[in-house]
Task: structure prediction
Amino acid sequence: MASADFVRFLLAMKEEPRLLARYDEFSLPQLLFHAQNEGFAFDGGDAAAVVGKLEADVILGKDGQPFDGSSSLWRHMWGQRYLGYIVRDVLPRFSERELSDLS
Result:
């Protein structure tokens, strides 16, 4: 269920740009601490598993590209804060059904 909670966290960031702006400034330990205080129950491993799956599904499945540094998704990420990139550029590539299947 922790993976589902991380997906719920990402969706909350997508719905509330001010919340994303605040969390996007945090280091991972800060993000985990504050997210837990706001009722989200996930850890760094849960976040890494979900993000890794999302990125792999976009690169391999949706874009049909090799899973390496030549991927257009990863090149698009350069120069962006990571959480913002996930919420703005990766998450919208998935339907609600696909996101619910992650948990």
In short: The two ends are 6 Å apart (CA to CA). Residues 44-62 form the longest helix (19 residues). The mean pLDDT is 92. Residues 2-101 form one domain.
